[in-house]
Amino acid sequence: MPGLAANDSSPPAAPPPLRAKPKKPTPAALGPEADESLDNPDLGPFLLKQARGAMVSGEGGGTARALEFAARALERRGEGAELELAMSLHVAATIHCGLRRHADTIPVLERAVAVRGEEWSLAAFSGWMQHPNSHRSYLAEAHVQALQFDEAEKLCRKALEIHREHSATASLEEASDCRLMALILDAKGDYDGALEHLVLASMTTVANGRDIEVATIDVAIGNTYLALARFDEAVFSYQKALTVLKSARGDDHPTVASVYVRLADLYHRTGRLRESKSYCENALGVYAKPAPGAAPDEIAGGLMEIAAIYEALGQWSTVAGIEAQMGVLYYMIGRCADSRNSFESAVAKLRASVCVQLFKIDEAAQLFEEARAVLEQYCGASHPDTLGVYSNLAAIYDAMGRVQSYSCLDVEITYLINI
Fold it and tell me: Where are the stretches annotated Disordered (predicted)?
């Protein structure tokens, strides 16, 4: 009856159980503790495929998780899974490199190299000889990023030996490894060795008709000639690269501006200040109206180099304007700390320059000291921008008659330049 039902305090009857078929857990839902599920011999290849798909789609967290499961499943499989295990390790290393986790890349690749088996050996050889991002250069590049140059050099030399024995003549893969070896030797101060490998890479790349890559190598060759104080040869290499890049990419491409900057730096070092300033202006013209798609961080880096040259020339108002542009670019790409530093430095330089023009020498000295403190904190004492501030501050001390301060700063400048 309705009345009795209303006063009934007993719990309601449970609904009848559903007879739905239990769902099979998906691999993505598996946790590291699900050891028994990993005994399935088909799970490893499936997870490897899932890892590849996630990597292509950009799902970094899912990729790393799937790779962990794939590696564990393949380890459980034991015999016969060496090829899949090695492939999964290579995918893991690719992800670590993409995330700039180079310290994690090294042990993964070393483990991949240690995997045994005929199929794996064939895959390793194929990847070594054909794929530019395989472990033959991954491991060396990871050591370079970790500043482990001796280990990187050993691995890269081994790769080049294999190329000489087994690669086709003038392969692009060998050229890539020659460029990597040049980078390693350059970092170690062996400029002659770096130049030798860059020339080999250039010859190989020319044989394959890769003009833009040849131009990039020519810029690196010019940098090496500059380090060796072979200035005429450096100018020739830069001009050669400039001609190709302007023809292939247009006059307003950032890579063209980067060559202008290199030429400006070279002419500044050799005392040809008019030519140096001219190339700086050319580069600024490109950076002011760059080609569509230019990366803001690339432009900011180029502006930083130009600012260092103008600072050495004593053109503080120009330097301040460039640093303000850099501050805007850093803000656009989310590097707020760098943006703030650039703005602070620009404001300090402009205020100091105005005080000099107004003959307020005491106030100018104070502002240059503020700029000095900012640059010492964020750039270091030996940075070109910091040295430029030192020079101007020393000149102001001299004008103020502060002989002791001038002498101490002059000695410090001489010491830092000669380090």
Answer: 1-44
Q: What own/partner pairs with CB < 8 Å and gap ≥ 24 does 362-366 have?
A: 362/400, 364/396, 365/393, 365/396, 365/397, 365/400
Give domain limits for the chain: 32-145, 328-419
Q: Helix H segments across 228-312? A: 231-249, 254-269, 273-288, 296-312
Helix or strand holding residue 110 (H, E): helix 102-114
Candidate from 223-227, 245-249, 335-339 with smallest mean pLDDT: 335-339
- Residue 175 CB contacts under 8 Å (≥ 6 apart), including other chains: 200, 201, 204, 205, 208
Nearest to 266 by CA among 315, 323, 228: 228
The pTM assigned to this predicted structure is 0.56
CA atoms within 13 A on the CB side of 34: 15
The domain 328-419 having CATH identifier 2.140.10.10: the answer here is: no
Q: Confirm if 308 and 384 have CB atoms less than 8 A apart.
A: yes
Rounded to whole angstroms, how far apart are CA atoms 369 and 348? 9
Q: Which of 242, 275, 272, 235 lies closest to 257 in space, CA to CA?
A: 242
What are the respective helix, strand and coil percentages of the chain, to the nearest 5? 80, 0, 20
